[in-house]
Please model this.
Amino acid sequence: MSRDVMRDLIGAGLILAVAAVFWSRQDFDTPEDVIFPRFVLVVLTLLALSLAAMAMVRARGGSGTAGGRSRTGAAEELPPEAARMQARHRHDAGESGTAAPGASAAGATATEDQPGGRPAADGSAGPEDEGEDEEPAPTPGRRPHWVLPAACALLIGWAAAFGLFGITLSGVVAFVVTAVLIRRGTGTARRFLLDVAVALVVVLFCWAVFTRALLVPLPVSVILGV
Amino acid sequence: MFPGIDEAVAQVVSPTMLALCLVGVIAGMAVGATPGLSATVGLALLLPITFTLDPARGLVLMGAFYAGAIYGGAFTAILVNSPGTPSSIATTFDGYPMTRKGRSEVAIIAVTTGSVVGGLVGVTGLLLLGPAIADVVLAFGPQEYFWLGIFGLTMIAGLAAKSLVKGFAAGFIGLLISTIGIAPVGGDVRFTFGFTQMQAGVPLIVALIGFFTIPAMIDLMVDPGSRAAAMRRETRRREPGLLTRTVRDVLSRPFNLIRSAVIGTFVGMLPGAGGNVANLIAYNEAKRASSTPEEFGKGKVDGVVAPETANNAVVGGGLIPLLTLGIPGAPADAVIFGVLMLHGLRPGADLFTEQGSLTFTFILALGVSALLLAPVGLIVGRGLQRAVVRTPTTYLVPAIALLTMVGAYAVRNNPLDVVIMVALGLLGYGLRHLGLPPPAVVLGVVLGPIIESGLGQGLLTATGDDQPWLSFFTRPISVGILLVVLIALLWPVWTRWRARRAARAASPASAPQTGPSDEGTDWEGAK
Model:
């Protein structure tokens, strides 16, 4: 079973679970209030079942892009010339992503860039985009696995601490932790002190603007009293 | 035709009024650019200051602030994928991809141009057509609002990347989120799961910040190198003549500007719709009318110009029913209505005759404010953009995260909203990885209350009929909107068929695999 099919099945399962949970909580009965949520839940269920059915059909067919035939899968079934033309067509349409196996190099490097000239003001980037970065962006393969869970945990912790410890304490701590996380834990003690200083300035500025100028009563830190 | 307009012109060009316009636009921009603080919140904060001013100055300051706030919402939408106000939802669709390509300055210049045009068209509509069009607005009943909401939902067809099923699933998740809390018609408490704090539902701004900003924050934390590369590209690409070239490029497609401005003016007139609906419809229509719709969502200039032109046109459009009928077109107009009442001014025909000088001063000052968006936006706005570009990711991400937390909290001064915002953000991040586009979820959250209120109220108003449902299909304006909905739904089918036919004619071998159905915004890849 391909990754796309698996992903669609997980998506369909999640939607069905959400629909089931909401359906079980319909403890209201005014007709005008029942129609709309019930309609939404029924349609959601049907959409989830369609998604699952389409994924299963694709799984049996052995191809794999969401909601239709796989681009790569479809190209694999084509003769080399047709695959090359298909890849070129996608390149002309500005589609990014990997091209079909067997396609030409021109088709395989599909980007959103214009074929030549300076960058146009219509949203397409110029050719200098290609390979100009001295420092290539980290690719998912080289990314430490702990970063994503750590980022999610940090945001959840920050949100919970915001109400409990107030903007100042939670803000400064979470600000510094975020900076360290982005730096992947590397850096000198001096850098860390700089992070703390920047965090203090930003958080106190934010606190002053919201509480003094915009009169928003931000939550108070029970520890610091501000 | 315009009694007292000569007096109004003299007042508007006075140094005091111009200074008030400038201050209002800059202050509005600052508030609009802050996620969580909408134009309405900003105007409410400004209200006490206007008590000390005479009616004309108070109204001029409010109008300028309103224009600036709507415009300011575009900055964070473009630079950090966080719409400053709900009126800038659609601006994120192409604005943030432009930033990721190192083209945020082009986006800022383009939205400034669109905002000026939109603001001026809205004010012109208010000045010339206001009283006449106001009668049409009165003919809009619940059934028409229901169909307007359904029309907005057709935008999902454009947002769905590879699968309409996934697009609509995401949209219906948004509709489901919108049903949480007290029902708009019958007042039942729904889906609160025992939390009394949830009775007021999920605030739109909290959902907006969550679905748009949190996934962007996570992306930057996980892969900070991508932003660094884009920012280096942006700095390197800065070249002389960019301003002129971009303005000329935007103005070279006047139909996009005019269409979006007309949409904004008209939607602005409809009470309850406002900029958050107008910007979505304008984006969708720009995409539908474009010869290269597949480029939308990937950083196309027209994709930022259309929504920003429309939402600035809403400023003038929304004042049409307010000044002529006393019905606020948008929540922010309700605050301005408060200022009018505070000074003993009653909306209606008298406002344009007996209080002509004051009314036209206000309207003309809105036009001046729209013009001021250009210098203010190009100086202050580009300064902000350059500051954001230069800020290291290490500090930008926590600063934006802090701002989003405070913004979500400020909506109702409720810490639970911060938790909801992060939870929705994580949900959006997960949904995106499952191929369900988060913007479609937001679309559902925005349109859900409009559709449900229209449906419930429409059925209630037609209870005397044998078949209340038929009232949705028999009213002339309803039928008109229904036809537009059908055209909107059939349009992708038509273009797909046309593209397939063209592809088949060009290359019979590759025809079956090509066509617009496969194209569109790749939300999974657009991290």
Remarks:
- The longest strand of chain B covers residues 181-182.
- Strands of chain B lie at 181-182, 189-190.
